[in-house]
């Protein structure tokens, strides 16, 4: 049984370094809301066939349209190239020139597990390895086989890409990463990590480099203009 499905079957959370996944109740959207989606979104979240492992198409009819990738107005003070994360709104912004940003829906830390502050992307990885912490292996001895790391792949909880957040030379243990559970986007589900739909994290990964500044807001403050929702 794949590792993620095994955890669900046992009723146990999936721990991703500093990230714990708790599956939320499924959301329902009206037929009218689904019909309002522009055709481009179905292409944007279609199956990717140019990756080392399968990236299946996303059932975007089950995701609030606000959380689909889209360009928006942005009026915050951050310089272009900065990533700004608003945990309250479950949005990640990549600030661009001309008062614009690319906005992505994200899953964020559960109540009591959030964090905020400034960080820097110091490492990036495609199809990253997942290594359960020793404390988790003590609680779940069956994970001993992954003590040296679970290789990247379609069942790896970190998804297709990971960007590792540091403060100075200290690894915060928080990541911006993909997910094999796209239905968790727009929810509070982790222990602080920021997760994106795999198609979105691949897009973001291509746009940023190591050294990118990341700002995680502490309150409801945004920076977006009239399109803020």
Automatic annotation (TrEMBL):
Q: In which pathway does it act?
A: Cell wall biogenesis; peptidoglycan biosynthesis
List GO molecular-function terms, semicolon-separated.
glycosyltransferase activity; peptidoglycan L,D-transpeptidase activity
Which keywords accompany this UniProt record? Cell shape, Cell wall biogenesis/degradation, Glycosyltransferase, Hydrolase, Peptidoglycan synthesis, Transferase
Q: Where is the active site?
A: 177, 193
- An example Gene Ontology biological process: cell wall organization
Which Pfam family, an example, fits this chain?
Answer: YkuD
SUPFAM superfamilies in the record, alphabetically? L,D-transpeptidase catalytic domain-like
Gene3D superfamilies of this UniProt entry? Answer: L,D-transpeptidase catalytic domain-like (2.40.440.10)
Entry keyword annotation includes Hydrolase: yes
L,D-TPase catalytic domain segment(s): 81-217
The transmembrane residues are: none
Keyword Hydrolase in the entry? The reply is yes
Instruction: Output the Gene Ontology cellular-component terms.
Output: extracellular region
Q: Which family does it belong to?
A: Belongs to the YkuD family.
Protein name, please? L,D-transpeptidase
